[in-house]
TrEMBL record:
One Pfam family hit: Peptidase_S9
Biological process annotations from GO: proteolysis
Domain Peptidase S9 prolyl oligopeptidase catalytic positions: 537-732
Protein's name in the database: Dipeptidyl-peptidase IV Serine peptidase. MEROPS family S09B
Species: Microbulbifer marinus
PANTHER family assigned: DIPEPTIDYL PEPTIDASE 9 (PTHR11731:SF193), PROTEASE FAMILY S9B,C DIPEPTIDYL-PEPTIDASE IV-RELATED (PTHR11731)
Dipeptidylpeptidase IV N-terminal domain span: 123-447
Matching InterPro entries: AB_hydrolase_fold, Peptidase_S9_cat, Peptidase_S9B_N, Serine_Prot_S9B/DPPIV
Cited SUPFAM superfamilies: alpha/beta-Hydrolases, DPP6 N-terminal domain-like
GO molecular function: dipeptidyl-peptidase activity; serine-type peptidase activity
């Protein structure tokens, strides 16, 4: 009786006596289990409101534009997407590919742009352009053509709307409504003002044109894809097979030819910038420093050299402002910021082994290193020239959390921490740096969005997303498992951080199977104090230990930790993952004979390499959309880490999965989207043919019509149910 009374009192205090059982179907159903998570958050230019895109409660893939009005302190729908366009949105092939590169999925309002006066908004929707007047609360359709308009924006002074149509740049004068075509010749392999494939996929550059601050000029890239191999790629759907002609720049093969021009909007004439004798190059970034001064980041094909160059429109002269070099590769960033009140700019560099901020003048002279230490800056967030403060996010306190910091512009290296809660902070500042939006989460808190003063004081919640009664996660709260963090010392002397979920109703006297969830590739980090994949939570609740370790090559640990993969992909990463499994086997509650590995994309590659090269440590593996042969992947990504296969063929052979296939001893499941245009389906067909020829058994699941991200609720339910069933069959025989 006493025990029953205590149990009743405990349930009353917690507010939940028994949680609902978490299922895969629930993870991928509406409303989203983690609650409301707005995206594309930004201040309006006049600072009167904060706007964001938010999925609907009954369909989280249908987005409307919302506002938080600072004057009245209320959130409301600002623009309902149905008021602009109803019905099915038929996307062009170019737009489908662009969204796949951006990793965005859904319908309704997917992008928006403010006018500089904060009185109107611009929306690309269903292939046309809509101009929305906030005072009139009415949309004006600027285009109505069979062509598909993309990359839509308002010019800096608000006079024009520009967009790409049929591979050329067009503008509409908002006062007269008159439309003009600014570039010509955009057809076939020639594209004006557009980002090429590797720029979108690997450089995080989604555009190919840039307005000057005074609206008089547009800098743009002209891309000639004719040198790039045109391959025939099959996209297999449920009821058809589409044969796609795609220009895909595989490693070692020709890239696009690229030109940089400056177009005079009034005359329509273009001046071409002399990019030098070497034509096999990349233009990674383009930025205007002043009305008459254009800068661009020139990168050689090896990516071991990056130059920040300037082009003066008045003199026609090109100068190299600074040069970054590396014996491995130079990472790109978006931290270039020109100060308004002087001829100085801020730049980030990894020259001392960690990414830090530096101050230069426009002659390229280094004035000061602004941050320093054995920790990394994530990105420059804002510059307040009135107060002389620079705001940035970084990992000064721990590599497992991203915080907001400030440093004085004229007295660098005295860093002050601003964010206060332990976890991951994504920051978006107001134009005048007076305040910021904080998109925050940690392992026990799904994403919350709040408005802050620059000092860090919270002004209000934009989306508190508290897990209280009525929240989608609330019925599952009592059984939610908080993971543990730790580190191990690898044999090579470096420290490896891990995250581990212990199973529901954990009993230290029992032994549990393990799912190692990994990615392992560069420019990524999985072990953070941030909201995690709910499938990992689900597997822990199903009785698995779920273990993730960030190996060498992963991000935010400095170049010494990242660079060991250079021309050695699949070697140091597997060594570190094996070190993680050895640690797991040392734990008395781990069933060391029943450890599985799962990853997607680079993680799929890592799952294969782990199964093939370290089969004694992994009993079963799930490989999703894997790269199997790096010569099949694109130039900019692959050559950055592996060199050019025409010179480094042995490195490519050693980093492919094929020399190690005979090492497969455990159970293997491979899955892949049959319309994947990123990691081509050929990677999987080559592998399964090799496995078949060697008489090695495996399981295979293909997804007709699906791209690299395997979008779609039912597809995701099928995918993760399959993974769970696979591990149950191969790791749970004794449990």
């Amino acid at each position: 009786m006493k025990r029953e009374l205590l149990l009743l009192l405990g349930c009353t205090f917690a507010g939940i006596c028994s949680a609902e059982q978490l299922t895969i179907e629930r993870i991928f159903s509406d409303p989203a289990l983690s609650g409301t998570s707005p995206r594309e958050l930004e201040y309006s230019p006049d600072g009167s409101r904060v706007t964001f895109l938010k999925g609907r409660a009954d369909d989280y893939d249908r987005y409307d534009l919302w506002e938080y009005n600072i004057a009245d302190g209320k959130s409301r729908v600002l623009v309902n997407s149905d008021s602009l366009h109803k019905g099915e949105e038929v996307l062009s092939d170019e737009e489908k590919a662009r969204r796949e590169r951006q990793r965005i999925y859904g319908s309704g309002i997917m992008e928006y742009t403010w006018s500089d006066d904060g009185k109107s908004l611009l929306f690309p929707l269903a292939g046309d352009v809509y101009y929305y007047d906030l005072n009139k609360k009415a949309a004006r359709r600027l285009t109505e053509t069979e062509a598909f308009e993309t990359d839509v924006r308002v010019s800096p002074t608000g006079r024009y709307v520009s967009f790409i149509r049929d591979q050329d740049i067009f503008i509409v004068d908002l006062k007269t409504g008159k439309e003009r075509q600014l570039t010509r010749g955009g057809e076939g392999p020639i594209k004006n003002g557009m980002a090429e494939f590797v720029a979108q996929e690997e450089m995080d550059r989604m555009t190919g044109y840039w307005w000057s601050p005074d609206d008089r000029h547009i800098a743009y890239l002209q891309v000639d894809e004719s040198p790039v191999d045109e391959v025939t790629r099959s996209e297999i759907y449920a009821d058809r097979i589409d044969m796609i002609q795609q220009r895909y720049p595989a490693a070692g093969r020709p890239n696009v030819r690229i030109k940089l021009g400056v177009l005079d909007v009034a005359s329509g004439e273009t001046r071409w910038v002399d990019l030098g004798k070497d034509k096999d190059i990349y233009i990674a970034r383009v930025d205007w420093a002043r009305d008459n001064l254009l800068t661009y980041q020139w990168q050689d094909r090896s990516q071991q050299k990056l130059e920040l160059r300037s082009f003066n429109l008045d003199s026609g002269r090109t100068n190299v402002l600074l040069t970054e070099t590396s014996k491995t590769w130079v990472n790109l960033h978006d931290d270039l910021h020109f100060l308004d009140d002087s001829d100085r700019f801020i730049w980030s560099s990894e020259r001392d082994g960690y990414r830090h901020l530096y101050l230069y003048d426009l002659n390229g002279k280094l004035l000061q290193q602004l941050t320093k230490g054995n920790w990394t800056v994530d990105e420059l967030a804002a510059v307040d020239e009135k107060t002389g403060k620079i705001y940035f996010t970084g990992r000064k306190d721990t590599p497992l959390e991203r915080h907001l910091y400030s440093v004085a512009l004229n007295d660098g290296q005295r860093v002050q921490k601003i964010s206060r809660r332990a976890g991951m902070h994504d920051i978006e500042f107001a134009n005048d740096a007076s305040g910021y939006i904080d998109k925050f989460s940690n392992v026990s808190t799904p994403t919350q969005v709040s408005l802050h003063e620059a000092s860090g004081d919270r002004v209000t919640w934009l989306e508190e997303n508290a897990v209280v009664k009525g929240h989608p996660l609330y019925p599952y709260k009592a059984d939610w498992i908080t993971p543990e963090f730790g580190s191990i010392d690898a044999p090579q002397g470096h420290k490896l951080y891990y995250r581990m979920y212990k199973p529901a109703n954990f009993d230290a006297n029992k032994r549990y199977p393990v799912m190692v969830f990994l990615y392992g590739g560069p420019h990524a980090q999985l072990v953070t104090n941030g909201w995690d994949k709910e499938f990992n939570q689900y597997m822990a609740q199903q009785g698995y230990i779920v273990f993730t370790l960030d190996n060498r090559g992963s991000a935010h640990r400095g170049t010494e930790f990242e660079n060991p993969i250079f021309k050695r992909m699949g070697e140091p990463e597997v060594e570190d993952q094996v070190a993680g499994v050895k640690f797991l086997r040392s734990l008395p509650y781990v069933d060391g004979d029943n450890i599985g590995v799962y990853g997607h994309s680079y993680g799929g590659y890592m799952a294969l390499m782990s199964m093939f090269k370290a089969g004694d440590y992994f009993k079963a593996g799930v490989s999703g959309a894997p790269v199997t042969d790096w010569s099949l992947y694109d130039t900019h990504y692959t050559e950055r880490y592996m060199g050019n296969p025409n010179r480094d063929g042995k490195a490519y052979e050693a980093s492919s999965v094929f020399p190690y296939v005979d090492g497969l001893g455990g159970a293997l499941l491979i899955y892949h989207g049959m319309a994947d245009d990123n990691v081509l389906f050929t990677n999987t067909t080559k592998l399964i043919k090799e496995l078949q020829d060697k008489g090695l058994q495996f399981e295979l699941m293909t997804y007709p019509g699906k791209k690299h991200s395997l979008r779609g609720k039912q597809t995701r339910i099928h995918q993760y149910t399959m993974i769970k069933d696979f591990f149950d069959r191969h790791l749970r025989q004794q449990h």
